[in-house]
Specification:
This protein is of the alpha+beta class and 174 residues long. It contains 3 helices and 9 strands; from the N terminus they run H-E-E-E-E-E-H-E-E-E-E-H. Residues 1-18 have low confidence and may be disordered.
């Protein structure tokens, strides 16, 4: 997994300008800040958003639409399931000889065009502190999984910028 993180944060193939993006199933939109770009079809992900490179990496957001419609989330059950999430994330980080720095508790946010179920964690690999957050986003009765990853030391305002990008998500057509 360490190899994937390094490649994902460093590799920068040609990118698209921010606009309506084709995921292969539907078109989606993000309002990207200056220096951010969208790329289709990276590592079998329909869409990856890249922030500007700083130091050895760049913030990334992977987007995967699900084929199922009408998925609902039980918030009470998800609060219970976050214990399992923490257990599995902790085991993954420790397997990489890393250290867990903390967890972002499960929460639900209503965005302009969608509703997001959010959970994440912070961890250290070597001398690098990472923040990784999963977003399960429902828009027009369709589910999208979005995952952000960035190096905290290189992007102290990374979470705010990522949240601004994600809150601009729209799946309502062009």
């Amino acid at each position: 997994m360490r190899v994937i993180l390094i490649i994902f944060c460093v590799l920068m193939p040609y990118c698209l300008e921010a606009s309506w993006i084709n995921t292969g199933k539907q078109r989606i939109f993000f309002d990207l800040p200056e220096g951010w770009q969208a790329k289709e079809g990276v590592f079998d992900m329909p869409v990856v958003l890249y922030g500007p490179k700083q130091g050895n990496g760049r913030p990334t957001i992977g987007i995967v639409p699900f084929d199922q419609k009408g998925i609902t989330f039980n918030q009470k059950e998800n609060l219970v399931n976050q214990k399992d999430y923490r257990k599995y994330r902790r085991a993954w980080v420790e397997k990489l000889d890393g250290t867990v720095l903390g967890f972002h508790p499960y929460e639900v946010q209503k965005w302009k065009h969608a509703k997001a179920h959010i959970i994440g964690h912070r961890f250290k690999l070597g001398q690098v502190d990472f923040s990784e957050t999963s977003f399960y986003v429902i828009c027009d009765d369709e589910l999208f999984h979005m995952k952000s990853l960035y190096r905290e030391n290189e992007y102290p305002d990374g979470q705010k910028v990522i949240m601004d990008v994600l809150k601009s998500f729209n799946c309502h057509g062009s």
